[in-house]
Amino acid sequence: MSLLSFRKTKDTADPGANPALEAFLQDYSIEVMPRTAEKVDDFRDLLPAGTRVYIAHIEGTPIDDMVATAARLAADGYNVMPHFPARIIADQTTLADWIARYQGEAGVDQALLLAGGVAQPHGDFHSSMQLLETGLFDKAGFKRLHVAGHPEGNKDIDKDGSDKNVMEALHWKQRFSETTDADMAIATQFAFEADPIIAWADALRDAGITIPIHIGIAGPAKLQTLIKFAIACGVGPSLKVLQKRAMDVSKLLLPYEPTEVLTALAAHKAAKPDFNVSHVHFFPLGGIKTNANWAIANGGNAAIPANQN
């Protein structure tokens, strides 16, 4: 019996269920890469139909592999959102070709636009704003466009440790969101503490940035794995949460689970429904199956109704 069918056939409530957490996990999304997707025999045993699945485009991944993964996931009933990393896209002709292939071969009509983790651009683009300025996504009729967010800042963009450039970019994207027909959201880097996430989200709203936030959360994984990814991805202040855990011998060998951070965020959302974090986006650093198991056990149902932000 698949995990999904198990969830659907439960006829009694979980006595340990947390209603606020279950509500917060509704319509979560998850990220895969072509090479990790190849290891999954059937996503339908792991993720409910309608789950939004981001496909990360890492430097060196052939576009053929990206499109093939998108087509497979779309055929299985998922909402596919490939990454478009500006710094690895050579020029506008290449961008137009990628859009056309995703649409023609996989029926894709949504995308995450980001600068990408490459220091030097491979071609004409260095930011997601430049991709948006081409007008190619609007012209192609993309219904949803997500952009990147960084709750703990981004030292690649603001080398002085401030958030000046990041905020200027978000203000630009806010203005763009008011002129496009596509629904927009901010999909963030992962973090491990609720309070800084809440403070960051509130600061965006106070600054007039009202694009809904899909908060990035690291899925269950070995502690050593998380620390490695956190350092590589530039996760800053909340890294101390992992380091503190690593110093606790009783927890060192136990896998990390995002229960604490998500429970706190869910409680805040329940208390303040206008909190502008609208969805959870999982980075399955400990594996897709492990993450899917955790989401199902905690009441997550990823099926996305129409017109959801």
What tags apply to this protein structure?
FAD-linked_oxidoreductase-like; TIM Barrel; disordered C terminus; eight-stranded parallel β-barrel; disordered N terminus; 14 helices; 309 residues; 15% strand; alpha/beta; 8 strands
Structural notes for this entry:
InterPro entries: FAD-linked_oxidoreductase-like. Keywords: Oxidoreductase. This is Methylenetetrahydrofolate reductase. With 309 residues, this protein is α/β, with parallel strands linked by helices. The chain has one domain (42-297): TIM Barrel. Helix content is 41%, strand content 15%. The protein is built from 14 helices and 8 strands. It has helices spanning 3-9, 19-25, 34-37, 63-75, 92-106, 128-133, 136-139, 164-177, 194-206, 223-232, 239-246, 249-252, 259-271, 288-297, and strands spanning 29-32, 52-55, 79-85, 110-114, 144-149, 183-190, 213-218, 277-283. The protein has an 8-stranded parallel beta barrel. Helix 10 (223-232) runs antiparallel to helix 11 (239-246). It is globular and about 50 Å long. The protein starts with a helix and ends in a 12-residue tail after the last helix.
